[in-house]
Amino acid sequence: MPPEGDPAEPTPATTPRRRRTIAVVVGAVVVVAAVVLALVLTGRGDSSPSPDATTSTAQPSGGASGDATGGDASDEPTSSTPPAAGPDTPESPPVGLDGSPTVVDGVTVRVKSLTAVDGEAVLPGEVAGPAVRAELEMVNSSGAAVDLSTVVVNLAYGSGRTPANTFSTGTSSFPASVEAGATATGVYVFEVPADDRDDLRLTVDYAVDVPVVVFEGAAS
Length: 220
Hints:
Order of helices and strands: HHEEEEEEEEEEEE
Distance between the termini: 150 Å
């Protein structure tokens, strides 16, 4: 029997059990570490974008057939509206107020009336005073509707051909089109000094590639 107070030395039977316990614990730790590592690697692999996702983000916003703005070629306007008249558009020889010149094939224009009136100021910049009211008619003798959306009517007065301002009140421009066999009417009220009403130049601009129709005369 060992002396009192000295630790008892392990017996041969207890030593193998301790070694087996340590081996089991170490093996369990290794297994847990392997499982954790496998989960981490699996998680990283799942975070990578799939080929489908990459393909979808590369598509333009308008789809495969659209343009860069997302539109589609089939959505482009197919309007036959003529180009608007401009300052370089040639002019036809002037005609009298009783004339009925041709604008385009099958379409003529005439001044139904050109009378002196008093202009009414409504919008900012307008000044009430002497004015001229021009009523025009566009006659379509062709077999199809004619676009009038670009028609511009102007008036100048005096020897210096001063451009006249247009009053909003009383003015009603030509409609967007005139049907075959029909007549369209446009009314325009211009600011013109009373002393210049006998020297007027009324122009009708149909489109940039069509000569401007010119009427000359005096208001009644």
